[in-house]
Amino acid sequence: MSIQFKIVLSLVTSILFGNTALAQQQQIQSEQLLPKDAVTVFSINNISLLQKISMDELVRYEFMSEVHQELFDGSTSGKTLKDAGLDFDQRLNLFYGKTSTHELTGFTFGIADKKALFEVFDDFQVVNSPLNGLEIYGTFFNQLLIKDNRAILIRIEPTMERIDEVTDSIWYARGNEIPFDFFDEPAEDEQILDEQTFEDNPNTPIFPEASDNPAVKNYYELRDSVQVILQQAELSRVINEIFVKGENLYNHDARFAAQLTHNAEGAFYLDNARNLDKSQGLWYFQTVLPTLYKDIQELYAGNVILGDLFLRDNKIDFEVEAQYGPALGSIYAQMNDAKFDQNVLAYISSESPAYFTYNVNLQKAYEQAYKVLLPMLSDEKNAQIAMNVLTLELLNEFINKDALFDTYKGSMFGTFSGIKKVMIKKIEFSYDEETFAYQEIETETQADMPIFTLGFSTTRADIPELVLKHMARLSSRVQRFEHYWRIDNAILDAAPLYILNTGKLLIMTNDEDLARLHPNGYGKAALGKKERSAAKHSGFMYGSADIPQTLDGFPLDVLTPRNAEIVSSLKGKSGHITLSSSETNTSHTAFKLSYSYLGEESTGKHLLDLVNSLYLIYTLNP
Amino acid sequence: MNIILGNKKAYLTNFGITIVQFLHMKYLYMILLFGIVSACIEISDDITLNNNGSGSLRYKINLSSSKVKINSILALDSLDGKPVPSKEQISSKINEFVRILDAQEGISNVLVEENYTDFIFKFSCDFTSINNLQDAIALSIAQISKDKISSPSDQYWLSWDGNRLVRSIPSYITEQIKNYKVQDAELLKDGVYTSIARFERPVVSFENKLSTLSKNQMAVMVRTNTLDLKENQHLLDNTIVLSPR
């Protein structure tokens, strides 16, 4: 290739792509303020969609909960995001992160009109900045850092463990004794007063007792000081990292940077490997079995979840790719090496507001996990682990794994058929007119019952049948009918559970109609051809939910508060959600979540709804 | 039968709410409160007063029409960020309360029936005097829930002069009722509170217009729904006058 040709080519290239590259560079400005400790990030690329979203509406989202205190004071009233001075040519990036010592949340954004911005953020006070060109504003909870036309609103909280560790260290180094009286009865939960009780009771102790010498801090005063100092130190570290060293998530993790180049309305990033640290359940491994913890970390190395949000006609598609390292990937690949069991489709009614199919090969997954995990566990020089390894190896030898995994193959389906009225027995108090003598009368009343069905693929129907037969001999509550078994009062001590053992499926349901009228499946009333095909051709899972029918009627009481919060966040929405996955291989699995909606609300609102739900899912259920 | 109206010094003793306060322990309390505010509940208090001032108290809570909901709560680890107790923990707390109350002066035959199939709880005890009963309740509440009874007027909500029974709700109960959050007015409407006072002599008059007199004229009953009770905690106040001995 001649030099002239290269020059011409480079000129043409720069003309063709130069502006795009420049625009791209401008577009990534706000991302350059993301702390590299951010584990979860939602980037909204096309925030012009959000121009009409009111600030009041925005601060009601859970993803704003950590930073919204200052925004709830009336300064947002009647204002939109556009009025808040945001630069709609830059991305809005929501982030959440946790290190071993701190938790940090917030968002980064571009600024078009600083004056307008401070009409909303009107509680922020100027704080002395250590760096030229960096403006710092602070409130009790949050810090707003502005450089040029980019800003980061950040909240940093040291972890309780870190605060305790530092406080104890100083406290005992000063020669103090144990600050707690272990012989005192521990405070009961009910003594933590709610706001109303607290305000109504003027005698409520607010401050810890002062020490004898007012110049010397008691334990709790010291602890408060430590918390503030740790907060300030971490903020200084983050400022130094971002604004002096130029280190941020964007240039720290190429996978995140690459994700932002996608032509999508939004991007999602979750580094699950780093997320491990925030899993409370692993603290035992971290402290007592550090070698094993390191092994687990290695197992999860490279496990990152990346997603794109695409806006299409009245639809938002969330396309996610879960990437993992070879060890974890080998387990997932084996697990997902399963043939779809078409028998399940006959038992999903076309009327079901929500259903899912889950298709895995548990035996292969077990064997691969055994191969990968057992050496890790065997290397651990810990008596308890050694005993567990021995037990596992013995079980592996003695148990008939074929019988076990033929009974429970791992593939399953579930449906939610809405709320039905069921009759339950209740007791009423009754009093006669003569003396008001009391008696109890048994009557029937209707109760709302969510109707669920759960079915498992099996090729050893004889084994559950054996169990049920013996249960029936032991309890009159277990009865055999022509096509099904019924266990009285099995559901919440009030309603019967029906078990259908079809030979290929073991189905458990509280839907009497399914057991009595459709023991061989719904026939023509089962899922339509299109839905059957979608479920069949999806990878290891497929799910579908009609939002109004499912969530608006779903009894939140039966969920954990965390999951109830997630469901609540979607309540009142129109539309439909489907979740599908691709085939899994040793390096990745791809998922697609499609959220289609009716056109009444703005697209930006739907986008935020979905982002909010995903935020809750990924931050509350790490 | 005369109904005394316009008496500003209207009192009542709401045993029902009081027993909820007896059981003001974090475990059962959560279930009961949840029952009151979110599900259908039937509460009944029943006091029998002898001429000499002794008597017996029976108290019943019936959550059988809400057992699906109660069971679903018990199946959870926590509710609104607070741990949900097991049936064993609830039972243990109830028995602790019984043990403490039974040891109080003037109190005997303290019995509790716990039915966790239909969620019906029945409590009964005998007392030698109204004051013994109130002192015992106040002391037991203090011991089991660490609630402080701030003044004598909070502690004494029943009075009996040999001819007249005056019932009121202690302020520490009304404060609790005020804090109940109405989540579903219809459900609260379905809840029933029944308060009965029985005597050894005929009743001459009673003040509460909601009251009814038994045909044998020896007992007075007041019934209301839990929503009305939340809105007006003095709804069950009553002054009952008996015929002279």
Mind explaining what this structure looks like?
The complex is a heterodimer of chains A (about 625) and B (about 240). Chain A has about 625 residues and is an alpha+beta fold. Chain A is built from 21 helices and 20 strands. Chain A has a domain at about 325-585. In chain A, a hairpin with a 3-residue loop joins strand 16 (about 495-500) and strand 17. By secondary structure, chain B is α+β, with helices and mostly antiparallel strands. Chain B has one domain (about 1-240). Helix content of chain B is about 35%, strand content about 30%. Chain B is built from nine helices and 14 strands. Chain B is globular and about 55 Å long.
- What is the makeup of the main sheet of chain B? 7 strands, mixed
Determine the N-to-C terminus distance of chain A. Answer: 54 Å
What is the domain total for the residues of chain B? Answer: 1
Class from secondary-structure proportions of chain B: alpha+beta
Q: Indicate the low-confidence ranges of chain A by residue numbers.
A: 1-28, 186-193
Number of strands of chain A: 20
What's the main sheet of chain A like? 20 strands, antiparallel
Shape of chain B: globular
**What oligomeric state do these chains adopt?**
heterodimer
Into which percentage range does the β-strand content of chain B fall? 25-35%
